[in-house]
Amino acid sequence: MAGKDAKSGSDRKGEGANVLEKLDNAEAASVLRKLLDRHSELRSEAEAIALGMLGEISPFSVAHEVEDALLQFDYDDLNGRAGSHSWGYVEPSEAAGELLEEALEPFVNDMKRHLEMGLEDQAAQFCQGILLGLFRVRDGGENDILNWVPDFPREAAANALKVWSETGGAERAGAPARKRRRLS
Known about the structure:
Strand order of the largest sheet: 1-2
Number of domains: 2
Helix content: over 70%
Order of helices and strands: HHHHHEEHHHHH
Number of helices: 10
Oligomer: single chain
């Protein structure tokens, strides 16, 4: 009987490693937080790993992801939003704009998050990737959704730069600050 208990204990250890691999992102983050609460000496190592992961940004990869996100939609997506609804009528151009804005929003939020963490160089690379991705889709090509809002890439690029600047990217990158006129 003692041998049976020892075996089941070793089986549980094998299951534990498997459990960690099957955690979703929220569960894994919760485990990491609890581990760092219990072992504060690991915090600096965890932060170094996080900074290393966040520092690996390629503007070309971001541009490709932005491109994919904006070109993913088709008429079924547009028809799901445009037209008559219980709350009123939605123009196809308005629906297309909403789809594209929602697709771009996570990239702009990531750029802001990098700036808020003090990762100015990475945020600038993220911004460059967003701008490059928008530049690549600027003519709409054969994408019907982008053709409904031909000004979207230009306006979204201006907005991304504005967000970068307002979040502190321009100041941190050494861009000249705007001079305010004094009223005497």
